[in-house]
């Protein structure tokens, strides 16, 4: 069965709201987004619609190289899923996107996490609740709690996730492997890659 790769971006913008969420969850990197390409161009989450207004929250397609996010601390992970799950996740997100104006950011839900009170709200999600919601029916992604209690840390703890980059989000390498991945490659693959580059250099 064909596998597809999706990406998770965990960020900390250092804003007052980010610090509040860090306090509520007792963790850092408390914003999570889901992405469908290695260059991180197609990125979705629930967050600020207007970067200058922390209370203008809802469904967003994010620009990781925009002024608001590029200086964020981040960790980027991958997860392999089936083609069927990939199609299902994309469809779920597109359905939310079609009705984006009906959705709002679930600020009250953050208080529910802090107080450990289940608060159900219609068409209101926070970032990790959004990610958990679009992934909850997949074979790979499993959580032992309701989506309205899921934090970014819960998602990062999924054993299927693989870390590929950590650092400043604006420095994310679009075309090269993370350094750790390079050392995990078979030695023959590294040798072949270096040999090819040497040949290209000689030809020039």
Can you tell me about this structure?
The chain is of the alpha+beta class. The protein folds into two domains: 3-172, endopeptidase domain like (from Nostoc punctiforme) (endopeptidase fold (from Nostoc punctiforme)); 176-204, no CATH class. The protein has seven helices and eight strands, in the order βαββββαβαβααβαα. The chain has a six-stranded antiparallel beta sheet with strand order 4-3-2-1-5-8. Strand 2 and strand 3 (43-48) form a beta hairpin. It is globular. The N and C termini lie far apart (42 Å).
Please render the helix and strand layout as text.
Blueprint: E1 3-12, H1 16-25, E2 31-35, E3 43-48, E4 57-62, E5 73-82, H2 83-98, E6 104-105, H3 107-115, E7 124-125, H4 127-135, H5 152-156, E8 162-168, H6 179-184, H7 187-203
Parallel strand pairs: 6-7
Antiparallel strand pairs: 1-2, 1-5, 2-3, 3-4, 5-8
The percentage of residues in β strands lies in 15-25%
Rg: 19 Å
State the CATH class of the largest domain: Alpha Beta
Compute the average pLDDT.
Answer: 83
Multimeric state: single chain
**Fraction in helix:** 25-40%
If classified by CATH, what would the architecture of the largest domain be? Alpha-Beta Complex
Overall spatial form: globular
C-alpha end-to-end distance: 42 Å
SS-based class: alpha+beta
Tally of contiguous helical segments: 7
**Largest beta-sheet characterization:** 6 strands, antiparallel
């Amino acid at each position: 069965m064909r596998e597809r790769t999706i990406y998770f971006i965990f960020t900390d913008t250092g804003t007052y709201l980010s610090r509040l969420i860090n306090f509520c969850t007792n963790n850092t990197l408390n914003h999570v987004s889901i992405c469908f390409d290695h260059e991180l161009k197609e990125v979705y989450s629930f967050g600020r619609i207007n970067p200058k207004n922390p209370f203008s929250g809802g469904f967003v397609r994010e620009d990781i190289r925009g002024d608001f996010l590029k200086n964020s601390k981040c960790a980027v992970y991958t997860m392999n899923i089936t083609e069927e799950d990939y199609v299902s996740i994309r469809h779920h997100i597109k359905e939310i996107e079609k009705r984006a104006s009906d959705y709002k950011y679930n600020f009250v839900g953050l208080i529910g996490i802090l107080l450990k009170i289940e608060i159900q709200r219609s068409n209101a999600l926070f970032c990790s609740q959004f990610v958990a919601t679009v992934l909850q029916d997949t074979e790979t992604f499993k959580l032992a709690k309701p989506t309205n209690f899921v934090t970014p840390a819960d998602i990062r703890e999924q054993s299927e996730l693989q870390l590929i980059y950590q650092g400043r989000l604006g420095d994310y390498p679009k075309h090269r492997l993370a350094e750790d991945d390079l050392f995990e490659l078979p030695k023959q693959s590294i040798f072949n890659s270096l040999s090819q580059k040497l040949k290209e250099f000689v030809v020039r």
